[in-house]
């Protein structure tokens, strides 16, 4: 069975109307909110995915009031998520912790009649996240967009992440996840969302290079270059490797790239630089008493504009690796 690409949302109006009930309630209460996860993928980014849990981002300060607002207007109640879908694999973490810090940075709401909710296209489960969980700013209107075909007048103002903001948040969250340890199931979910966006939003053929194949020497299609101009500079190396299907760096080296480029941008713009964020530890390696693998550094891909005005890619070392540049690979 082949892929099918959509020029509008594969989520039909009645489904959208039911799914957008909770964010519409927050909109009416004046609580800034961004629709996240599969609902955002399907409703505004045209990804043909099943709609699982509703996930919403709100300002960290609004988390409790947002949950209370939804529960007071709709038949949901705060609960603890005891289902296995967001728990880690026992192979990687014998404790099988949840991907989110339920009750703290994430609140879980369950519909009071789950079967009825599913029959009526509503979400029976809602994850309400502090926006910092996904490194997202719900107050920055330039990073959000509206549904081009809202199912009702009431839901017209509900916000979704722009394509560039979606990539930025997912890449940052892959490197700096919400828990202090690596959660394999969470990581796979983030990678699948990135893959969905690249598969369905950048071309009607599901390709990212002009040849349709991957590799560091391949030429990205114009839509990919447009996207790279819109994402944050620190996201570009990871995203370029992803679009070219080049092997990604290990987490620590990805973080090194991101922090170095972020520091350069802060210096260029005259902005204060916040300290580097802590990296998560690996439960699997810790349980075995092993240290993370350290690989040789690799060249970093940059988006550049050549003298002829055309955009392209250039691979060069970070400043800290300049002395060993000749030995470095892509």
Give the class from helix and strand content and strand pairing.
Answer: alpha+beta
Instruction: Round the Cα radius of gyration to an integer and report it.
Output: 21 Å
pLDDT < 50 runs, ≥5 residues: none
The CA-CA distance between the termini, in Å, is 35 Å
Give the proportion of residues in helices.
25-40%
Strand order of the largest sheet: 1-2-5-4-3
Average per-residue pLDDT, rounded, comes to 95
In DSSP terms (H or I, runs of 4 or more residues), the helix count works out at 11
**Overall number of strands:** 9
Gross morphology is: globular
- Our estimate of the beta-strand percent is 5-15%
Largest beta-sheet characterization: 5 strands, mixed
Oligomerization status of the protein chains:
single chain
Structural description of this entry:
The protein is globular. A hairpin with a 5-residue loop joins β8 and β9 (311-316). α2 packs across α4 (63-73) and α6 (163-175) runs antiparallel to α7. The chain has 330 residues and is of the alpha+beta class. The protein has eleven helices and nine strands.
Could you name the key traits of this structure?
single chain; two-stranded antiparallel ribbon; 330 residues; five-stranded mixed sheet; alpha+beta; globular; 9 strands
């Amino acid at each position: 069975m082949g892929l099918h690409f959509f020029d509008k949302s594969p989520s039909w109006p009645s489904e959208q109307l039911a799914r957008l009930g909770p964010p519409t309630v927050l909109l009416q209460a004046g609580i800034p909110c961004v629709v996240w996860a599969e609902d955002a993928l399907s409703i505004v980014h045209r990804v043909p995915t099943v709609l699982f849990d509703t996930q919403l981002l709100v300002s960290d300060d609004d988390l409790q009031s947002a949950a209370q607002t939804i529960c007071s207007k709709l038949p949901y109640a705060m609960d603890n998520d005891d289902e296995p879908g967001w728990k880690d694999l026992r192979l990687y973490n014998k404790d099988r912790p949840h991907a989110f810090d339920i009750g703290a940075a994430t609140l879980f709401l369950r519909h009071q009649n789950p079967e009825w909710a599913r029959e009526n296209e509503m979400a029976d489960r809602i994850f309400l996240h502090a926006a910092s969980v996904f490194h997202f700013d719900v107050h920055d209107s330039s990073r959000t967009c509206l549904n081009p075909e809202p199912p009702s007048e009431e839901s017209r103002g509900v916000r979704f992440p722009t394509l560039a903001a979606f990539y930025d948040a997912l890449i940052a969250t892959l490197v700096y996840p919400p828990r202090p340890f690596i959660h394999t199931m969470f990581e796979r979910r983030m990678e699948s969302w990135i893959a969905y966006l690249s598969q369905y939003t950048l071309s009607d053929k599901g390709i990212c290079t002009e040849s349709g194949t991957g590799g560091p020497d391949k030429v990205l299609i114009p839509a990919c270059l447009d996207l790279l101009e819109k994402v944050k500079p620190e996201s570009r190396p990871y995203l370029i490797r992803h679009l070219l299907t080049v092997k990604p760096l290990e987490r620590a080296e990805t973080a090194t790239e991101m922090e170095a480029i972020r520091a350069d941008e802060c210096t260029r713009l005259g902005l204060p630089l916040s300290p580097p964020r802590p990296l998560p530890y690996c439960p699997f390696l810790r349980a075995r008493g092993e240290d993370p693998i350290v690989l040789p550094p690799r060249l970093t891909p940059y988006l550049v504009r050549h003298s002829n005005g055309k955009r392209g890619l250039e691979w060069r070392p970070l400043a800290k690796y300049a002395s060993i540049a000749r030995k470095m690979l892509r």
